[in-house]
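[Q] Does anyone have a clean structure-token version of this?
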Amino acid sequence: MNSSSRFYVARLAGTSVFDPLGDPVGRVRDVVLSPHARGARAVGMVVEVPGKRRVFLPITRITSIDAGQVIISGILNVRRFEKRSAELLAIGDLLDRTVTLTDGSGEATVEDMALDENRHGDWELSKLYIRRRKRSGSSLAKLMGGRGETLTVSLDEVTGLFGTQAEQSAALLLASYEDLKPADLGEIFQEIDPKRRLELAAELSDDRLADVLEELPEDTRVEMVTALEAARAADVLEEMNPDDAADLVQELPEGVAQRLLALMEPEEAEDVRRLMAYDEYTAGGMMTTEPLIVAPETPVAHCLAMISREELSPAHASTVHVCRSPLETPTGRLLGIVHFQHLLRERPDRPVGEIVDSDRHDLAPTALLHDVTREMATYNLVSLPVCDAEGRLLGAVTVDDVLDHVLPEDWREQDEQPTITGQIDLSEIARRMDEDSSDDDAREG
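[A] Here you go.
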């Protein structure tokens, strides 16, 4: 291997990985270690490739490790990385771990670790860069500005590195994941053990945890919510999209569900209860009760400001619903909708009621999933309003809600994702659902 004979793990994190032609293939996120009697050796690296997917790179495939680059031979296997029971992650498991110095001088925290290449070409964990634990009131602590001194030690100078002591700081681990989207962070939550999952959840803000829960399989999110303190769980439910919160509450044991609903803000709980009244595979069960709603006199500029909010998904931001008062669901009569592209073509001061598309396509809350998909496919829509018999807006179904119900229930847990060529054809999905419905009718007959 043509490279320097030592590298530090924390410094390597984020380093670009290149193939033999010099093309970037991903970034290093961690080093996989295999402990043994004398220490640990590196067996590979966790590399994040485009799409935020984390894959395993065997150490034998690495031809060079230098400052700012890791060069590999061949191509990466894109199977999602899964840590084996006998393996440890240098950053994920060992960084910030507390160790005890064998000279009796106290405890220290691991801030980095060095791996050296031996004469056999193996990378062995050789040195630890540690920081002594602060001793209250000591002169040295005061000189260090309240922080302990740092030093580099060999593995035999400390104990507890691979022991069963307290886990590393969850806050530090989350800091390495702060740039991840909720779906990618949710994938990581599925890979770690339940105890670790709860430690990370405790460090997340309510809205961030809500986003992650929406991306987890049913059994995992039920396990997490029931393990949280009831008050925290209720706060997190309030931050979730009402339709996702309703789906989650329905999955919980009855006693837990009712207790959490009682702890939620009355308005938020009422939205969830309203959605729970509908079957999951109907427009009412899939809709959000918080679409973008404005009065007809609202200027175009205000509507554009509403759809530009960062927290809105593209599907929710695609459509503004123009209604009579009240402007919270269930609203007054729905006058029509305006798509964001139409807003971009109009004067900022023009009232949105003058450009409303009154020839709208709306659904009853009892409309079945195959009716929703057919309507979206026929008119090339990404959002559909849901109205009651009096024409009052109850909510809106978006294409992402539909896909969540069309895909297999365990799609988030599948390691191998199918290769998709071209775009998803909703009309084909609708056709197949109609065929399934016909088959079901035939069986019942």
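[Q] Thanks! Anything notable?
[A] The chain has four domains: 6-88, 92-159, 170-277, 278-445.
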